[in-house]
Amino acid sequence: MSALRLSRIALTASLAAFFSLIAFGNITDYGTNFAFVQHVLSMDTTFRSPGVMWRAVTAPWAHHAAYAAIIAWQVGTAVFLWVGVGRLWGARGGPGAAWNAARGPAILGLTMGAVLYGFGFLVVAGEWFSMWQSREWNGQANAAMFLTFIGIALLHLSPAETG
Description:
Keywords: Membrane, Transmembrane, Transmembrane helix. By secondary structure, this protein is an all-alpha fold. The chain has 6 helices and no strands.
């Protein structure tokens, strides 16, 4: 068992725990981050430029649906990452081909996390809903920090082993 493999497993497990805790927090303390989603979609703390305010979504049902989708994505990400950790752990001492085959769920989970924070928070929330304009409800710095951690883990795990 190599230190490189243990490093890859540790990073994947760290992110599995991270997404598990995020999902758990969003489920058990629904209102806290629901307010974030509600304000971002409503665009009520942006510059309120008429050129972009037509994008605002103010229907409460849509806020709940978007938040439920985010939570479901977080849960799915955590599940794929934990399955990936299990498969990587099982292949930790095996040949390169077995290790390479075991990476699939972890790579998928890391990609799901990157999509959530890269596309969901930076592209959709940040740009489409102008979250960058809000002093109170701007999650771009945190999303970038999370995306960096996920990206490092994904780049570290992705190269196939030979031999």
